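User: Quick sanity check before I run a bigger batch. Here is a single chain. Can you write out its predicted 3D structure?
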Amino acid sequence: MTHKGPKEFKTPCLPSGAGHFFAVLALIISFLLTGLLSASAETSPIIKMIELRGNRKISTDTITSKINSKEGSPFSKNAVQEDIRKLYGIGYFDDIRVEIEAFEGGVKLIYAVMEKPAIISLDFQGNKELETKNIREKITLTTGAIANLALITDNAKKIIVYYQSEGYWLATAVPVINKVSDDGIALTFQIEEGPKVSIDEISIEGNEAVSDREIKHVMKTGEWWIFSFLTGSGVYSEEQIRADLSRIKELYQSKGYIYVAVSEPRVTLGPDRKDLYIAISISEGDQYRVGSIKVKGNTVFSDAELYEQVETTSGQIFNRTALKKDIDKIIDLYMDRGYARADVDPLVDVNKEQRTADITLSVIEGGIFRIGRIDITGNIKTRDKVIRREMRLDEGDIFSKKLLTRSFQRINNLNYFDNVDIRPTPKADAQLMDIDVKVEEKLTGMLSIGGGYSSVDKFMIMGEVTQTNLFGRGLQLKLKADFSARRSNYNISLRDPWFMDEPVSASIGVYNEQVDYPDYDKKAVGGNISFGRELSEYVSGNIIYEIEQVEITNVSDNASLLTRDQEGSKLTSSLSPSIWRDTRDNYLDPTSGSKNALYLTLAGLGGDNHFWKATVDSGWFFPVIWNTTFGLHGRYGYARGYKSHEVPLYERFYVGGINTIRGLGFGEGGPVDEEGEVIGGLQQMIFNVEYIFPILDEMKLKGVVFFDYGGAFDKSYGLSERNMRRTAGAGIRWMSPLGPLRLEWGFNLDQRENEGEDKLEFSLGGFF
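Assistant: Done. Predicted structure follows.
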């Protein structure tokens, strides 16, 4: 008995012939054993055996998983027809025949299949502007895959979408199939790229309550402009424009226009076939206000506790975006108590006559979940324990979204990974929440060699070897050296953030520095050792012991009395405790949170120098609109000698430069001696105000505008409004593969004698 089904994949390159262009859909059952028919005309025979024939590339398990007919069950014509339908549905076969034979008192079903050919070769022709390797990355087909027509067509669409995303709106991709053998084909995508097309104009129609500018601001699709090669704007993408329509609708619904309608975009190609014109029509409808608002279904928290999370109030303009935030806060409240499956269903009852919307927040609480398994994947070099010790949740703990978010921040702040993905997976039956931590490691070792020129150091060369994840154990090793006509410096340090596998950090460092200043030469050799630990989730402390031998020689006859008093060799033995509270979301590029720190230094535990220093440092970051950040930073320092000793020149406060007051040179924001040389101050006060905004999100490139105010002071140059310095400027910040890069241009707003009008500076290291 034979059954043939219709072929799904027809192309001139496949085998020809009537048997290959159609299949007979009727199932003809004929029993060869007359005795079997006469023994039981009303009872279906039992399937004693199922046999598969013709499958070579497709596994037997794949086929049998689609077959309803089973050995030991009665034969059913309908079941066999359903089997054939399902097997055709997986798209791997050109022909399917079902035969039935008498077998051991029952029947044997034989499923004979003819597989579609495989793709032996895959090629692209006609692409000149886009590279073949990039096109291959956008499709899912590979050599060896089954030649499924639907899949081939889908991949042709993927190629077109890729071209459109690069500005080739008229691009086409046609699959050409050539027969190589009975079970193999060669597939070629014939590409016609066409000219590059840019968006010349986006017009908005029907909007009265919301301006064109506000609508275009929420759209990712934008008109072409001179810097489109950097921003990526001006390119039409069907996927992106559809997302833009949703953004426009969300914008209106945040302003009370519940029934706003946004049309499909009308896209017109200009006469030169290089410009696109997009028109979007909007039907705004009426504006609605909030009527009543209430909650129901809550038993864990009282109504009053939930209302505290809700900022939406009666009489306000209905704002669906704000309502979503209110719902998220309620859900977060539940999730921090372990109710991992809690949900809130907003029921909105609209009164069109009064133009009001009554809101009922229906709470679905669910049960308390505990943490099940915590699986860590993707870490090839980094040891599991280095990641696991940053988790704020452990197996068996009650689930908390807040602690899960904090775990992500801590792992991300290690700066060992390009990507960190933490996904909770609920097991509802067991009331458990498994956590999958997936990381993508990045290179944590860095070798940099560079050179430069400055007015102080003249020509200089520098080199640094840094490994922040040594042996995959989180050890941080740094070797640094720089040389110039006036300076040489060697520095080596090693830090273990979990010394002896305990939550205690330990570090050790040694250095050798020699600097030739205009009025004297300084040579310093020293070393330090420190220990620190977390005192709570956000509070940490540290204590450093440092010993340093400094020799001041070649003091000029014209040097100040203060400088001449420093001549000779002196030993400094100091202890420096510090404590800080850090809630920043990202240590290298924060957008929210703050860091507040107190640093103390007490020198005089032996040695020749006796002084103390205290510095209070505070930095705050506030997210503003459109992914921008407002930053405030302040610092106050005070130093004094004791036992009739002065604070050494090299321990005083020098204000001016990229980390203090931008736009001033080193020490220009403080006192000078009789010869005009900067000598630093015994006090410092600094304020920095910044507004940080994204330029290219995909490159992690940001811009900044700033205002700096402050200075350094001593007895002869007192802390006063007159001595405070003011600068302003702008710059860019880039989270480069080598670390955070700052390039900032500061302008001196109260220029004084022998000072420049502006200063361009750069640094590779942490931001404020």
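Residues 1-42, 452-456 have pLDDT under 50 and may be disordered.

User: Great, the batch can go ahead then.
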